[in-house]
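Thread: "does anyone have the structure for this chain?"

Original post by V.I.:
We have the sequence but no experimental structure in hand. Need at least a predicted one for the grant figures.
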Amino acid sequence: MDKAEFIENAPAYYALAIVMFMQKQATATKASIVDHYSERDQYGTTVVMALDPIWPFAIAWLKKRNMLLTKKGAFGPEIFTRGRDFERCWEELARTTEPFNLVGAYDNSFDYIMRCMSDMNVAFAELNLGVSDFSEPDTEWEPVPLDRNKPEAQEAVKKLNEAIKIIREDNGYAANQPDERALVVGSLQLGVAGIESGSVSAGLLRDTWNRLNTVGRRFAGNAIGIVVEGAKQALIALVKSEGSALLQALINLFH
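Reply from O.Q.:
Generated one for you, C-alpha cells below.
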C-alpha cells in the first residue's frame, strides 16, 4: 500500500467506526467515539482511533451520504447526530462498499474495527504520513437549498427514477457487473433523495452525473443509454435553473 491508497481508503474505515458507534447512540462527539475505541489495562489507556488527520475526511464521507449531521456552538465539542439516510445508506453500504461489506462477516464487529484501526496506525507510521499529506476536505459537500417543487427538480426526479428502473431491470448488467450496477443505482437513489428533500450539494450532483456517464458509456445507443441521456439532460436543466454559484460551477463538468 502506498500513501495515495492509504489516504483514499482510510476515511471509510473511520466512517465505519463512527457508524457502528452511532447505531447504539443517538448523539456522539469525537471524544466519546475515540474513548469507545480505546484499550485499557493496568498501565493506562491506549487510544487506537488516533489518526487525527483522517477525522475530517471521515466526517465529510458520512455527510456526503446524508448519514451524519454536525452541530457546533461557540464553545464545546462538535456534536454528531444521525442523518436522514443513516439506515438506508448503512444497508446499501453493507452490500456494496468496503469495509461495510466486510464487518458483517466477522464474528465480533468491535474486534474487527479495533484490528483495522491498529493496522491503520502501523501503516500510517510505516508510510511516514503526516498532517501535510492531507488537504482539507472539499467544501463541495456543503448542503445547498433547492426548490424541490420547481418543474426542473420534478423532471430531474422523474428522469432519474426512470433510469434507476431500467438499470435495475437489466438482468445482464446485474449478472456481469453486479458491483458497478449496485454502485450506480445507490448513487442515483442518493441523487433523487437529495432533490426530493430540497437539499443537495455540488458533490452529490457530481456523483450522480458521473454514475450516469458510467452507464451511458456502457450502454451507448441502446434503450438504457437513451433513458440515461434523458436523465443527464434533466440534471443539466436543473443545475442551470439554480442561482447557486456552487451548483453553477458544475456546468463546465456537464459539458
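V.I.: this helps a lot. Residues 3-22 form the longest helix (20 residues).
O.Q.: and The longest strand covers residues 38-41.
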